[in-house]
Design a protein that fits this description.
Blueprint lengths: L17 E3 L13 H8 L6 E3 L13 E5 L4 E6 L3 E2 L4 E8 L2 E11 L10 E8 L5 E10 L6 H14 L6 E4 L4 E3 L2 H5 L7 E10 L3 E8 L5 H7 L12 E5 L3 E6 L3 E2 L5 E3 L11 E4 L4 E4 L7 E9 L5 E6 L15 E6 L5 E6 L11 E8 L8 E7 L11 E6 L2
Parallel strand pairs: 4-7, 5-7, 15-20, 16-20
Antiparallel strand pairs: 1-3, 2-24, 3-15, 4-14, 6-13, 7-12, 8-11, 8-13, 9-10, 9-12, 14-18, 17-26, 18-19, 20-25, 21-24, 21-26, 22-23, 22-25
Organism: Sphingobacterium yanglingense
Protein name: Copper amine oxidase-like protein
Keywords: Signal
């Protein structure tokens, strides 16, 4: 990743593990001024707003419980991010029958002796003894591009929106097929990102590989002749097979608007550690540095004893770190009190947000006089191509 989903099986026996975040970073309370509240209140949901002198990294943190949810076997391919050799396997993992989530994030990095066009594709081999059924559940496949931010935003939005039905393929024992036929058709120029995000079910043991080859050769044909698997380097987000794919995040306490601004910090590697797994047949240590591809099903309880609403905003808190962190864009799945879903690219009025004083207005939650306690409900996944964390800040505002 530049830089630094819903499964049917429980992989790794990790259901019920509960993790509590560290205590709030400060006892000091923070409040938006009247003029700041007005900017937020009158802003367009999804858009970039500007608040000079408002954003900071030390807003009090929301304490939360994090529980591993049942989910698929999760595979991510991002080590190497840039595949520098013309033809090689960049990832190869074995899975057991059940649900699988596959996140492909690889770039044609061939520049020696010259830049050439390539194909980056994902294939699956039936390593079982019976015919295997592969049933696609969620499908997100982007056109190769050097606009990594757009690919990451659109890829996540397409994944949230996807609901594949009647997509079942049969694979004979020992047979190899492409997981995504679109990847087979794409021609990938130098420095273009290939971004695929899939969830599917298999009923036989299988081997999944991500490989780079020439455009005229099919992935299955290339797989037959490629012998070299690129050694892992523990670079970028990483690669490997992981037993954690979905988290349930819940606020430990009920937020009160009168207590001021708070922030939820997840996918930071500190309060919320990176998931761990293994790489290849040797079962080398793997870490997903960023928890990219992991879904956080988040619920925050709140009440308004002073009649204020809550605005959910986010910003690029890492902009000053290095040249890779100059922008941030994401997509989220948000639910109203009736469970109705909306999927929103953020920001919606620009490709990315750059740095303070810019922030993105994600949503405004109004108090319901008939309820003492309400709930904010959304699904968050760390945005590909963006630096983490992306703070989720709740700002009390007058209506």
């Amino acid at each position: 990743m530049k830089k630094n989903i819903f499964g049917f099986i429980l992989f790794g026996g990790m259901l019920g593990v509960s993790i509590s975040a560290m205590a709030q970073s400060s006892q000091q309370n923070f409040y938006a001024t009247e003029s700041e509240q007005k900017v937020v209140r009158t802003g367009k949901v999804g858009s970039i707003l500007k608040l000079d002198g408002f954003l900071r990294t030390d807003f009090p943190k929301i304490e939360f419980n994090k529980t591993v949810m049942p989910g698929p076997q999760f595979i991510i391919s991002d080590d190497p991010e840039y595949i520098r050799v013309p033809e090689a396997i960049a990832l190869q993992e074995n899975v057991v029958p059940g649900a699988v989530r596959l996140y492909v994030y690889n770039v044609n990095g061939v520049k020696e002796p010259q830049k050439i066009k390539r194909k980056i594709t994902a294939v699956i081999k039936n390593t079982g003894t019976e015919i295997m059924s592969l049933r696609m559940l969620k499908y997100s496949s982007q056109k190769p591009s050097t606009n990594y931010f757009q690919v990451g935003k659109q890829g996540l939005e397409d994944y949230f929106a996807s609901n594949v039905t009647k997509s079942v393929r049969q694979i004979k024992p020992g047979e190899v097929i492409a997981i995504d036929e679109q990847l087979e058709k794409n021609i990938v120029a130098y420095d273009e990102l290939v971004h695929g995000f899939y969830e599917f079910v298999v009923d036989q043991p299988a081997q999944i590989s991500v490989l780079q080859t020439s455009p005229e050769v099919s992935g299955p044909k290339a797989f037959e002749r490629i012998k070299n698997v690129i050694p892992h380097s523990h670079g970028n987000a990483g690669r490997g097979l992981f037993g954690t794919a979905n988290y349930a995040v819940a606020s430990k306490d009920t937020l009160d608007t009168k207590s001021g601004i708070t922030q939820l910090i997840i996918a930071d590697g500190k309060d919320d550690p990176w998931i761990e797994g293994t790489i290849g047949e040797a079962k080398a240590y793997a870490r997903n540095a960023g928890n990219y591809g992991v879904l956080y099903n988040t619920k925050i309880k709140w009440k308004s004893t002073d009649g204020k609403a809550l605005a959910l905003v986010t910003w690029n808190s890492r902009s000053a770190d290095n040249k890779w962190c100059g922008g941030m864009g994401l997509a989220m799945e948000l639910f109203d009190n009736n469970g109705k879903k909306v999927i929103r690219q953020l920001p919606s009025d620009a490709l990315i947000t750059k740095a303070a004083p810019e922030l993105i207005l994600v949503e405004i939650y109004k108090p319901d006089p008939s309820k003492e306690v309400q709930e904010i409900n959304f699904t968050y996944s760390p945005p590909g191509a963006s630096c983490l964390p992306t703070p989720l800040i709740l700002v009390p505002i007058d209506l």
